[in-house]
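Contributing new records

If you add data, match the layout below exactly. Sequence lines come first and carry their own label; structure lines follow with theirs. Keep one chain per record. Anything else will be rejected by the validation script.
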Amino acid sequence: MRRSHLIFLILLPIAIGVAISMIRRASQGAEVYIYAGSGAILAGDVEDALKRLGIPYREVDEDAIHRGALRRGCRVLIVPGGYTAEIVSALGSRGLEEIRGFVEGGGLYIGICAGAYIAAEHVEVPGRPEGLGIINVTNRRVRGIGVVEISVIDPSHPLVEGYGERIRIWYQNGPHMTAGRGVEVVAVYDDGSAAIVSARFGEGLVILFSPHPEGSSEGGVDPKELGTLCLLRNAINLGLGP
């Protein structure tokens, strides 16, 4: 065996070990947390999008949130699409209060579809249970799945930096939002209801996407090809900085 080959075989396990260690450190030091607990069946699509953007993240479930995980290094919390009723039930009053405290203290909350539903004062599921109450919106449930077009009405907003007047984006039963006082409407559906909104809550910021900037693996929609991947990056940058 040549000496160069021997050196390669010796160094390969070391290199692999270093790479694994770096990945672990990146995950442990991540400032972006994704709720991947009960009901968050579309968390994987958001995780895939963050990997493509090169943004480290950490998964948290309802138990971790109950134990105060958001108070330990989290700057951005993303609550993805999924089963809205199951998510709000799993979080319970304790989890909702932990998230409220996180945002009020200066954190960024990004709610996508189900994550947008639970951000309102009351959640639009049977019984209308208490939601987070961190943004003044009223949600209307509208059924539908597929690529839709939304109109940007505030082109100066950093959320839509790099975008034109119309955006094609994946939609999957998301809320059609009516914005109240203090809420910035960034983009709307053709019926005039809000599709993307933003508002302050305490020292923090709330961003809601009714549609899915992360695309859909199940629907075969690549967010990079569709052009919506940067919407998610723009949103996260508002919590982490460019």
